[in-house]
Amino acid sequence: MLSVLANPTFRAVYLAQVISLIGAGVATVALGLMAYEIAGAGAGAVLGIALALKTLTTVGLSSFITAALERFPRGRVLIGLELTRASVMLAFPFVTEIWQIYLLIVLLHSASAGLIPSLRAAIPDILPNERDYTRALALTQLSYDMETVASPLIALLLLSLVPINGLFIATLGGFIASAALLASASIPTQRFASQLGIGARAARGIRLYVRTPMLKGLLALTFSAACASAMVLVNTVVLVQSDLALESQFAVLALAVFGGGSMTAAVAIPALLERLPVRVIMFAGACFCLGGLIAGPLVGSYAVLLVFWFGLGAGYSLILTPAGRLVARTAGKADRPVLFAAQFSLTHACWFVAYLTAGLSGAATGMSTTFVMLAVMATGGFLVATRVWPADRATAPTAVNADHGEA
Q1: Lowest mean pLDDT across 170-184, 217-231, 245-259
Q2: Other CB atoms closer than 10 Å to residue 132's CB: what's the count?
Q3: What DSSP state is assigned to residue 299?
Q4: Cβ contact 345:57 at 8 Å
Q5: Where is 380: in which H helix or E strand?
Q6: Which residues pair with 400 in a beta bridge?
Q7: 3-state DSSP helix/strand/coil percent for the chain, to nearest 5?
Q8: What pLDDT is stored for residue 95 in this prediction?
Q9: Tens of pLDDT along 379-396?
Q10: Domain boundaries 2-189+198-406, CATH class
């Protein structure tokens, strides 16, 4: 899996991504602690709304921003968006009200809505061989998992030295370092020959996505993964600090265990894909998510919570790690940016619903009812996936011609 790092361009892009992710993860931990300081036991609702605004911004803007930026040099676009995110982070240490958190989340993720799909669309151009690209996807998922594990630990270390606001400054430094690494990489230019306008290009990506059975199945399974991760990200601090009456560092450790489960699965996926169809692996991941949510009301101790969080993390990764490969195999080069943007936008719609449910239900009805609600929603995603992505399509995805739609 590490052999792909021999490619100097991918190595620079990957390191930039890791640094950026860790910085963003530290900021997410800080945001949760800040919300708890401001709202107390209502922090779950604050985080749920904040994360829902993040996803709503992504859903609404990702396809349009990506389509608008296709005409410009890819490297400059990536650097500019990363520096934009850094500039937004400058304001976080001055937050004193809940509405300010919401505003800054929208501004931050307006830039992320263009940055992340553009970066994901560049990786298949850097590594055109599918086996190398699969390894790169596993390594990329591993970086997301490392962020989940490393960010809380780094946050704990920093909190022993600086106040919560110092965590946001650390994120600022991460974004600037990421931009510097991107500037050092020879990122391939993107092929852009479309005469369609921005709106038409954005709509084309979404249209191609929803016409492909395999990608519709991916979207439904992503909804199951979103339900699992929303429970973890939104309600861990409430479960640990309010329900179990433990200190904040135990909430941080629980988030790290979720990341550890995801990391374990991500490391195993390249070998699993050599032996099993991708559909089987992803449906197995959905079963992990369903099982953890269904049994969630049984959580009565911190040790049990950690076991559940590890399993939910593994299921989450089994669904999301192969996702980029499915999109890349479906898209022609000319449509790859807008199709990745459609993936980014549509899947974040799943997180929008899941975050709101996890946050508002947790605050209004309690954790047991929230587990049940999210389990029902995740089961719905699983059942839809079995219907729209039949087994005989598992190894024969619909191909999309680069210029003329479906092949």
Answers
A1: 245-259
A2: 18
A3: -
A4: no
A5: helix 367-388
A6: 406
A7: 85, 0, 15
A8: 78
A9: 999 999 999 988 754 443
A10: mainly alpha
Longest alpha-carbon distance in the chain: 59
| pTM beyond 0.90 | no
Query: Does the CA dihedral 371-372-374-379 come out positive or negative?
Result: positive
How many Å apart are CA 234 and CA 355, to the nearest integer?
7
User: What does each C-alpha distance from 180 to 76, 146, 154, 168, 213 come to in angstroms?
Assistant: 11, 21, 22, 19, 39
- List the domain boundaries for the chain: 2-189+198-406
Cα–Cα distance between 407 and 405 in angstroms, integer?
6
Neighbouring C-beta atoms of residue 128, cutoff 10 Å: 11
- Joined together, the tokens standing for residue 176 give 């600037």
> Residue 394 gets which letter from DSSP?
T
For residue range 329-364, list pLDDT tens digits in order: 776 555 666 677 777 778 878 888 898 899 888 888
- Please compute the mean of the pLDDT values over residues 90-96 and round it to a whole number: 82
Q: What is the pLDDT of residue 191?
A: 58
Distance CA 305, CA 356 (A): 22
Quick one: which of 309, 12, 325, 8 has its CA closest to 138?
A: 325
Tell me, what DSSP letter sits at residue 188? P
Q: Which residue has the tokens 């990391």?
A: 263
